[in-house]
Design a protein that fits this description.
Shape: globular
Number of strands: 8
Number of domains: 2
Radius of gyration: 18 Å
Largest sheet: 8 strands, mixed
Strand content: 25-35%
Helix content: 10-25%
Distance between the termini: 43 Å
Mean pLDDT: 87
Oligomer: single chain
């Protein structure tokens, strides 16, 4: 049974904390309407420090952790345990500085189709597994996102009120 849950930009620390409470459970990622195959591999964990200028000419800096998943079927393997996933991350942390407060992004491919970027929902226990719902990472306009966060809940678009149009990017 594959129930989709609202995704948020969870951090690496949030993910590892949830895993630590349930290390024996199989870790099952769901994306594009299906579960990842039991033979999946964590093929890469990388840390990025980014500096950018957004569309409103505001400087932006952030940290992000990318976990690459190779969605394959391999023999009679079962989904890896949450503890094994945590052990892989710990091994990477021996060689690469991983910021626990960094946003977590998953890169997923079956080795044939192009890699896709996903944000992750909070891991939940469901049907005897620790499940993580992955949703496509959408583009966003940071000035608009900041403006919306400051508005009363009844306002839905930064470009609707004429007095706010300067807050939007062109």
């Amino acid at each position: 049974m594959n129930i989709m849950h609202k995704t948020v930009d969870i951090t690496l620390g949030d993910m590892l904390e949830r895993i630590a409470a349930n290390p024996e459970l199989p870790l099952v990622f769901s994306y594009s309407g299906a579960d990842i195959r039991p033979g999946y591999h964590v093929t890469e964990v990388k840390a990025g420090q980014f500096s950018a200028l957004d569309c409103g000419a505001n400087p932006e800096t952030w940290s992000e952790i990318f976990v690459q998943l190779w969605d394959i079927e391999e023999g009679d393997r079962t989904h890896m345990s949450a503890g094994k996933f945590a052990a892989i991350v710990r091994k990477v942390a021996e060689h690469v500085r991983l910021d626990g407060s960094a946003k977590l992004t998953f890169e997923v491919s079956d080795g044939v189709g192009p890699m896709q970027l996903f944000c992750a929902g909070t891991p939940i226990i469901e049907n005897g597994a620790l499940r993580v719902s992955l949703e496509p990472r959408a583009a966003s306009c940071k000035p608009r996102d900041r403006w919306l966060a400051e508005q009363p809940k009844s306002v839905t678009s930064c470009c609707a009120p004429s007095s706010a149009k300067s807050a939007c990017c062109a």
